[in-house]
Amino acid sequence: MTGPAKTGPATSGPTTTADRQPGYSSPLPTTRPHLGHALASEWTKLTSVRSTVWTLSLLVVTVVGIGLLFVVQTDNIDYSSIPFTTPAIFGLLIGQLSVMVLGVLTMTSEHGTGLIRTTFTAAPERHRVLTAKYIVFSFTAFLATSASVFVVTLAATIVHSGPGSGPHSASEWTGALLGSLYVTLLGVLALALGALLRHSAGAIAAMIGLVTLPPVIGAVLSIWEAGKAIGNALLQYNAPVALMQLFGMTGAAKGNDEFGAVPGDAAQMTLILVLTGAAVAASYVVVGRRDV
C-alpha cells in the first residue's frame, strides 16, 4: 500500500522571485527612491543625535558670546577703522572647529557604530546617500554660522552706529556671508576627509592640523632664505588669515609688508573651493568602490 502521491511543490516557506508568476506586481504601493528620500533620512539622522546639538550649541555660544563681549567693551570711535562684522571673527576663529568636528561626525559616526551597513543596504545608491549628507550638512552649518555672525554684527551696528563710527557699506555684510561660506566649506572638507579616512579621531586631527599648522610652519620656514617663498605663501594662504581677510580685517591679515601683497577675497575663496572640491570628488570615488 502506498501513500498519497505528491502533486506539486510545497506551498509553505518564503516566496522567492522564481516562485512569482510572470508580470507579478506587488499590491502594496511602492515609490521609486529618489534624492528627497535620502535627504529626509540624512536630516533625521543629523538632528536626532546629541553630537549635532553639542557642536552647533558650542558654535553659537562661542561666536555670539565672544562677539557680544567685544561689542560691550568697544566704543563708536573704534569702528571708524574696522567693520561692524569684526566682533564676530574672534569667536568664529574658535567656532570653526565645531563645524569641522560636526562635518567629520556626520560621516564617521555611522562607520563607528556600523550603521553605514544598514544605510547602504537600504539605499544601495551610495552616491545619492553621500550627496544627501553633503547637502544636509552644508545647509545646517551655513545657517548656524551665518545666523550667529548676523546676531553679533547686528548688535554692533545698533550699539555703535552713532557719531564717530565712520561710514560703513553693505560690502561688510557680503564679506560676513563669504566668511560663513568659508567656514561651511571647511566643514564640507572635514566631511570628505571623514569619508576617506572612516575614523573620527584621525579626520578631526587632520582638519585641526590643516587649519592651525600652516601659520606655524610658514613662520618657521620664512626664517631661512631657502624656504622663505614657501613660508610666505603659507602665511598668506591659511584659514585664519582667509577669515580675517573676508571679514575686512585687511591690516590684521597682512601682518607684515615683507610677506608680500595681501590675497584678495577671490583668491582665498578659490583656494578653499579647489581644495574642498578635490576632496569631495575623491570621497565619491572611494565610497563608490570601497567595501563597508
Structure report:
- It is a single chain.
- The protein has 292 residues and is an all-alpha fold.
- Helix content is 70%, strand content 0%.
- The protein is built from 11 helices and no strands.
- α3 (86-113) crosses α7 (200-221) and α5 (126-160) runs antiparallel to α6.
What oligomeric assembly is this protein in?
single chain
**Strand percentage, roughly?**
under 5%
- Strand runs, count: 0
What is the radius of gyration computed over CA atoms, rounded to a whole number of angstroms? 26 Å
Average pLDDT confidence is 87
Helical amount among residues, as a percent range? 55-70%
The SS-based structural class is mainly alpha
Q: Ends: how far apart? A: 58 Å
The coarse silhouette is globular
Low-confidence stretches: 1-18
- Count of alpha/pi helices: 11
What profile does the largest beta sheet have?
none
SSE sequence, one letter per element: HHHHHHHHHHH
Question: Which keywords apply here?
Answer:
70% helix, mainly alpha, 0% strand, disordered N terminus, globular, 292 residues
SSE arrangement:
Blueprint: H1 35-47, H2 50-72, H3 86-113, H4 115-122, H5 126-160, H6 171-197, H7 200-221, H8 228-236, H9 239-246, H10 250-254, H11 265-289
Task: Give a quick rundown of the structure.
The chain is mainly alpha-helical. The chain has helices at residues 35-47, 50-72, 86-113, 115-122, 126-160, 171-197, 200-221, 228-236, 239-246, 250-254, 265-289.
